[in-house]
Each structure stands twice: as C-alpha cells, then as structure tokens.
Predict the 3D structure of the following.
Amino acid sequence: MPQISVERLTKHYGTLVALDNVSLDIGSGEVFGLLGPNGAGKSTLLKTLVGILRPTSGTIRIDAIDIVVEPEKAKRMIGYLPENPSLYTGLTTLEFLQFVGKIRGVDDELLEREISESLKSFGLEEKRNSLVGSLSKGMKQKVALIATSLHNPEVLVLDEPLTALDPKTRVSVKDWIGAQTRRGVTTILSTHDLDVAQSHAGRIAIIDHGKIVAVGDIESLRKMARAESDARLEDVFLRLTAEKGEDPILK
Amino acid sequence: MNLGLSLGTVGVLVRYWVKGRFTKATLVGLAVGETFSIVFVLFGSSTYLSFSNRVGLTTGLSEVAGSLLLALYLVGLIQSGFNGSGLPVNSSDVDYVFTSPVPPREVFGAKILLNSLTTVLFGFPPILVLYLRFSAYYRTGWPVAILAGMVTLVFLVIGLLLSADITLSLGRGIGQRKKLWRNLFITLVLVISLLPITLLIPEVPGVIAEAARILPNGLAATISVGLVSGTSRTIAYLVDLLLLFGWLVGFLLLGVRLSRGHFYEVLEVSVPGAEKFDEPNQSSRLNPRGRSLWSVVRLKERILISRTREARALFVNAMFLSGFLVIYALSGSFQSSPTSFLFILFIIGSFGSGTASRWIEKERLWILKSSPVSMRRYVKEVYRARLAPLLFYLTPVTVAVGVPLVLSQLEQPPLLLGVVLALPGALEIAGITMAGGMYFASRYGQSSADDILSSQAQELADIRRFLFQTVINLIMVSPLILLVLASERLASSLGPGSLPALAASLVVVSIVFASFAINVLLNKAGDAVSRREDL
C-alpha cells in the first residue's frame, strides 16, 4: 500500500485550473522528484498535499489518513518546507525552533535535544540567540530545514529547497536531504535543479499546466519522451513539456 | 527659493507611482471608501450638532475640539515618522528608484508630492462635506466652507512633511542617544497636543491658550472653524494663515535639507515581516519546558509584541488617551449628560481594533497551517495574549476617568448607573472591537508571503476590510451602548431601592453579551485563517 496516495486531485483558483485530475502513488521511504516549468502547479500540489490548501475535488491520503477529513492526524506525519519560507523575524533562532517544535507536538526533552543537535550539525550554534530577522538567507533556510524535521516526520515535502542558495549552503542542504532519505523518510522533492532530481529521486513526475504528463524512473521517462538511452534529464524534461507544435529547444 | 530639485525627474517619478497605484479596480474601491467616509461625516456632524444643542455641552463647533482632532492626526503621523514610515517606500522603489542616478532630495520631493496629492484627493471630499454641513448650520455659505477645507488640507500636508522630516532625522547623528531624544520628543508632542483640551478646564492660565494657538493644529482649527462659524476676524485670519504657511515652508525646507545626503537606509520598506529590530541578539525567553502548547503560543505573541514597535505605540496611545479623558472629565463635560458616557465608550472602545488588526502580518501561516493545531483555538490564544496589554493600559485610564465621574454622580443614582455600566462597557467594547479587528485581519489582512495578492489588490482588500470592520463592529457593540442609554430610564422606573441589583444584573448581562460576541468573532477569525490560500 502506498504511503501517499493522491486520487483525481483538482484545484481551482476561481476560473484558473491549477491542478487537473492529478493521481499519484508514492511508496514508503521513496524519494519522489517533482519537476515542471514555472506555474505548472508544483507548489499548489505540494501545498494541497500538506493540507494548507483545500482540494476542489479528489482525495489525498497519507498512510490511509485523508488529509481533508483528519487534517491534524495527517499533519503530525508531515514535514513541509515551502519555496520561500518566511519565519518569525522577531523571535530568536532558539525561540523560533522551540515554538515550531511545540506546535508540532514534540516532547520537551526530545525537542531540546533535537534543536541542540541540529544547530550543531548546521553550524548555527552561535546564532541561537540571534533574531531570525538578522540571519542571512542561507542561515534562514537552514533554520527552516531544522524546523521542518523537528518532529521527525515520516513524510517530507520540500518545495525548491535549493533555490538561491550559495554553493556552501547548497551542499549542506543536499547532505541533509541525503541523511533524511537514508533514514527512510518518504520525500517529495520539487526542484528546478535536474541534477539534484536525478541524483536523489528514484522516480520523477513531470507536471505541466496542472497535469502529470509523465511519471517514472529516468529510464521510463526517456522512453516516454522518445529520447536517446543516454539522454540527460534536462533533454527529457524539455521534450515532455514542449507545447504542441513547438519545437523542443534541444533541437 | 532654489530647492535644487529637477521638476522633470520629480514628475516622472510621480507619474510612475500614480500609474502603479491607481488601477480601475482600486479607483472603484476608493470611490466606495470615499462615499462611506462622506456618509459617516454627515451622520457624525449632524449628531454632534443636535447633541451639543440639546445638552448645551458646547456652543456648536468649537476651535478647541477642532484643534484637538487635528492634533490627534498629528500625533499619529509623528509616531509613524519615528517608526521609519514617514516616507513610505515599497520594494520596487528600492530595486528601481534607489538604484537609479536620481538625487535623494528629488526622491524626497516626489514622495512628498505624491503623498500630498493622494491626501488632498482623498481627504478633501469628506473634509469639504464636514465644513459644508457646519456652514449650512451657521449660514455662512459654501465658498467659506471650501476655503476652510483648503486650510485644513494645508495642515494635513504639514503633518506629512513633519512625519517625513522625523523619519529622515533618525539617520542624522543622534546615535546612541536616539532613543532618549525620541522618547523626550514624543512626550513633548503629547503634552503640546493636549494643550487645547486644557482650555476646557475653568480658570486655566491664558498663556496655555496662546501656546496652543500658534501650533499648526491650533492655527488650522482657528482659521477653519472661525471661517465656517462666521466669526468676523479677517486680519487676524490673514496673520494666522501666514503663520500656517510658515510652518509648511519650514518643514519643507527642513526636509529638503535633511534629504540632501543618502537617506535610504533609514526608510522602512513596507513589506510584511520586514520589521527592523534595534538589537540583533536577544536573550531567548521562550522556554517551552513544562509549559502547555497554548501557554507557549501566548508567550510567543507577547515576545513578538514586546520586540516590535507595537508595545510602544500602545503605550503612547494609552498615555495620550488617559491624559485627554482625565482632563475632559475634570472639565465637567461628562457630567452634563449620561449621553456623554457614549464618548467614553467610543473613545476607549475604539482602541481595541488598532494594533489587533496587524497580528496577521506577524503570523507565519504556512507554519501554523502545516501544523496539527486548531486554528480557532490558536486565534483565541493570540487574542488572550494581545488583550492582556490592552487591558493593562486601558483599565487605569478607565479608573482615572471613572473616579471623578462616580464621585460627581453619587447624588443622582440613575446617572450613576450609567457610569457604572459605561466604565466596564468601554473595556468590553475594546475587547469586541479587538476581536473584530482580528477577524477582519484574518480575512483581508496581508499575510507573510502572499503570492496572489498584489499591492493594488491588497489596497482594495484594505478598503473592504475597513468598511466591513466598521459596520460589523458597530453592530456588535450597539447592544452595550443601548444598555447604557437605557439604564437611566430603567433606574428611574424601578426606583432607588432596586438600583444595586439592577446594576449588578446589567453588568452581568453586558459581560455575557461581550463574551458571546468575542467568541463568535474569534471563531470566525479562526475559520477565515483556515480558508486562506494566499500563503
């Protein structure tokens, strides 16, 4: 039985169809990549998966729990990192993490340990009493990542976790994602970085205009795109998302 | 006078900002807002005139009241000046205007011009209606009303300039003593702003009246009210007008002088969550060990309030309010009629909706909505955390106003009942309007990371919020007001013997109603947060 099951999911913003009849199954411990052009519906799909947005129709089940019917139960299992995580700038790093841990139901003792270890592993110990508003973008991203995993979620939903980060922070974030997946956490990773998708994700879904246009491992995606057997994911992506009548850029 | 400004650049900037700000939808929204303001002004001025005639509280339109009202506006602007919002900028200004080779003083000139244009454009219709209503009452004619309106507009522009100058002065070598100067200045301004109201106290020294008159608010009120009420003092008005323009030119020159250098770092970009903090390092105070989830939520809210400028704004407002009301109570104006208790109810009660409406800007909805917490409960706990400081400031104000009132009404039990109901009623109204403020902020307020609402759409949402919030809050608090109004008749018909029981039961009824209203509004606020999708 898949850990995450999405059936015929549709999401409208007024007359705009952001998600159109999307169905997906993601297995336990799987790292699932989500690719798509800007405005394809990736973020909407992820926000709906974590219960922030309400689907117009369709169902989402996390471990057989319907997120619309039992949102609080389902949210306990999920860790979510948005594309542009805005944090409480008036709290210190420590206060912010304590607050997030508490509202995600983490036991006091465990929370203290988790925060301490995470700050150490991300090199943020010296910033524990600094206001979040005074941190650099990379540091804020690290703080947001720590907040995402404080409650040891079974499912991680990461929306563009590497966007606009410096090379050093990118390495830290990639290492962190690797560590989570080795722990067996089911991970959905939305990214524009095709190398990251190819290296981390077992299966990849390509979404365009709110529809899933292809799902599978890199081999099956190549076949679907009728690409060479050694074609890069970038080429496959461009073929699959090319408009009808439009020549793929790779030509 | 050569201000060293290139009018061409100023014109380009103003045109660019006007195009960016006024879409068709925004204009429609603003027209609706203007209509609402005009209706409100007509209703308010007519009520004021009939009320003042009936109880003889004043002799109609008063220069003192006008001066005080204008001072309130000035205090608000001075505060925003100290908060760094005296020259409002947005992120596109930072990205495109501040990186262009435009001299800072020209940016200053263009900003002031745009702000003045919008203030004049949107401020003129309601002000004109107000003066037309009064000129009709005094039979002084509409040209006089237009003149009075223009004088008031000059004052509004002076306020904008003063606010901008204060913001610019923040970056001008005050250094470590900035805080001390700022606090001293705020206190001074509060004292000066309160001067007009002291004129209501019998036998007040004449020098105070003179001091109050030469301030911009005093001058504007004297000329406008004098014109509308038909007091024949043409030469004196001309002198006052010259003095008023003197203030205008003085603040303008000061602003241009201050803006010669690079001042951009002192400006606050109006992006939610982009607040400035004086100290980047703080001692962490949110220790969750042994605390319940909800106690941590309340503590987090208190920390955020204390570290931002909200606490200071609340304190300054409460100081101003208490000074104003205590002096007003001492003047004997309240004692003239039980209806004047409404004044207390409205003035104190209206404080509730002020800072509460900003709570959503400080929230990070993605964190809350991806967490397993009940939004209704969360909003209620935030409300509890925010209500505590509000009551902390308002209760002493209410007591300070209440003591002279209660003492003076002891001989008249039916009136005393009105006072007894009005004092807790004021706090209850503050509680209800605060809950209303949170509800409408939840529905229409700008959240932390909205990628759907543009700034123009947000402006429209703000107008909708203002309209609905005013109407719904008035409806929600009207039973409490009716209770105060009906109390005198009830007390008279039941007799003095039943007064204690009647007072106790009416206070209980008002508390039960207030609790019910607050609960309904907060539940709706929680539901509104759950339904929000712009995060």
Observations:
- Residues 81 and 145 of chain A are 7 Å apart (CA to CA).
- The mean pLDDT of chain A is 88.
- Chain A touches chain B at residues 13, 50-54, 71-73, 75-76, 78, 80, 82, 84-92, 94-95, 98-105, 108, 111-112, 128-131, 133-134, 147 (CB under 8 Å).
- Strands of chain A lie at 4-13, 16-26, 31-35, 57-62, 65-66, 78-81, 155-159, 186-190, 203-208, 211-216.
